[in-house]
Amino acid sequence: MGRAPCCEKVGLKKGRWTKEEDEILARYIKEHGEGSWRSLPKNAGLLRCGKSCRLRWINYLRADLKRGNISEEEEEMIMKLHATLGNRWSLIAGHLPGRTDNEIKNYWNSHLSRRASDFRSGGHGVVVNLDLAKLPGGGKRRGGRSGHNAAAAKGGKVKKGKGKEKAAEVALQHAAKKEQEDINAATPSSQEQAQASASGVTSDGLEDGPLGPSEEMVSGLLDPVCPKLETDLDGACMDHDSGPCMDSYTGPCIKSESGPSGPCGDVAQEVGDHHADKALEDWDLTGLEISVDDDMWDSLVWDYNDMAVPEGGKQGELMPDLFFLDNM
DNA sequence: AACCGAGACAACCGCTGGTCG
DNA sequence: GCGACCAGCGGTTGTCTCGGT
């Protein structure tokens, strides 16, 4: 059967919005506020679907939107956030005031993904494929409104985001820190990198754990409340029985790879620099009810490619810091 | 000047999760 | 507990613009 369409499509206008329609919509929202998108077009006298109105408002008419080119800082931020969040454009957009998910998504698809792809295809750095589909909730589409968003929709202004956004925030904080630390650090030799590569952080043969990590666990790792990893590991890397490398990486980033199941779900991170000795001092598992032996690691899929530094190339050229895996 | 292809961006579509009756 | 409704998300498609031939 399928569900009924979200709105009667008969007689509804599609395609580009006219200036008049924009004015009507903007005026109506100014008077009545956002929300009730389903009834909005009817009440406002627009021959548009509620969804269309919402999209138009969010992506174009909102007063707080920043128009114009994406700055280098914003671009870098997008790259970083994408490394952490994958194609979660709304979360990424949440960290870029005045930018919409649609805008960022378009920008990524037309600019950054190619850059990242080009960089990767040049054999630069290491690719770590983190299969978010293996994470509960991680690989799934995050449609729907969250509870707090629902609350907001009911009238209250509730700050968006919980675990994943927090994760992004912390990741960025650490990225900034790491960037400062790493920027002067000696670039490890290819040999060192090869050693790092040989440390066992590979994906083949990895068995999926019976249960993946809970979203709370993953978020918890990056949660500012208890983010610090502390480890008694001597080595920089956890082997793949115990989990992904917890070392500090810097390097170029990032590619989103489409799997057979579609574009979302996989985040491939290009990791160039492998600071075998830096590692873990910043991380503290204290307070997290997990251990490095936890099953959660088993469901992460790692795919190391080439560790070689591009000839004459500088690692970190494209993306000087990588933090998600650092934090893991 | 006309055509064509690529790039950029706006909008649509299908699906999802949360809420509510 | 269930289903309908709703808002939101991300992928995809459509349209416009611009540069090259």
UniProtKB/TrEMBL annotation:
Region (Disordered) location: 137-219
CDD domains given in the database record: SANT
BP GO terms, sorted: pigment biosynthetic process; positive regulation of DNA-templated transcription; response to stress
Residue ranges of every copy of the HTH myb-type domain listed in the record: 9-61, 62-116
Record bears the keyword Acetylation: no
Domain Myb-like: start-end pairs: 9-61, 62-112
Pfam families: Myb_DNA-binding
GO MF annotation terms: sequence-specific DNA binding
InterPro entries to which the protein is assigned, alphabetical: Homeodomain-like_sf (IPR009057), Myb_dom (IPR017930), Myb_TF_plants (IPR015495), SANT/Myb (IPR001005)
Biased composition annotated in UniProt, kind: Low complexity: 185-199
Cell compartment(s), UniProt: Nucleus
Keywords: DNA-binding, Nucleus, Repeat, Transcription, Transcription regulation
Listed name of the protein: Uncharacterized protein
Native organism: Eragrostis curvula (weeping love grass)
Upper classification of the organism: Eukaryota, Viridiplantae, Streptophyta, Embryophyta, Tracheophyta
